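User: Sequence in, structure out. Go.
Assistant: Echoing your sequence, followed by the C-alpha cells.
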Amino acid sequence: MSLFDEPKVDTHCHLFDPQRFPYAADAPYRPQGQEIGDQASFERLMDCFGVRHALLVGPNSGYNFDNRCLLHAIATGAGRFKGIAVVPGDTGSEALADLKARGIVGIAFNLALHGSSHYLPTLPRMLAQLERLGLWAQLQVTGDQLLDILPLLDRSGARLLVDHCGRPDVGRGLAQPGFQALLALGRERRAVVKLSGQVKFSHERFPFADTQPYVEALLEAFGLEQCLWASDWPYLRAPFRLDYGPMLQHWEQLLDARQRRQIMWDNPLRCFGFDAA
C-alpha cells in the first residue's frame, strides 16, 4: 500500500467559500485566489490522498465567529467531517451544547493572532464549560505565549489540543520556556499536539529542516499516542507555494507505516470519534 492509499484523518484544515458563504465584515483577513478552497474542492483532494475524514477548523480569517460554512460542510459531508468552532468569549453552555450536537468537537483559541490578554478574562469560564461538555480547547500559541495561560490550564480539566507544534521560535532553540512548557504537558499526558504548520515558524523553505528537532522533541515527549498529523490546507498567507502531496509524502521519510497509522488514523479516530468504517 502506498502512502497516499493509507487511511488518514487530516486534523487541521479550513474551508473558504465566499460565493456561498460571504466573508464576515469583521474578519481580520480575507483569503483570495489560491487560498480559497470550498468543500467540493477539498473532498476531491481527500479522495486523491486517502484522507477519509477531516477536522475542519473554523478560521478567524474570512469568517471569524461565523461558523455557517463549517457547519454546512459537517451537515452535508456524509460523516467525513467534524469541526472546531470559533466563538465569542461570552458564549454560554447552551450554545456550546448546540454546536456539539451539530458535530463540533472543540473551540479554538488563537492567541497567536489576538494575543494572550484577549483571552485571559473569559478563558477560565470557557474552559470550565468545555470540561463539562467534553469538548476540546484548541490552542494556537506562538513563542512563550503558553506560559501566559499555563496557570489557567493547570486549574482546568479541559481536554487540550495544541496547534502547529506550539509554533516555537526556531532561533531560540529547544530550551525556550514556552516550548519546554509544551513538552511538559506532553510528558504529563495532559494535551495532544498537532504536528503541522511548520511554514508558520520555520525560517527555511519546504521541507523546513530547521523545525525537525522540534518535531522530534514533541514525538519523544508526547509519545506517538498523543500526536496528530494535519495539513493546514489551504495554507493561508504562506510566503511561497505549498502542495498537499509533497508535504504529505515528507512524513514517509520521518515515520514508518506503523507510526503513520497511529498518528494519521488511530489517534484522530480515538480523539474525535470518527467512524473507522
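User: And one key feature?
Assistant: Residues 17 and 38 are 5 Å apart (CA to CA).
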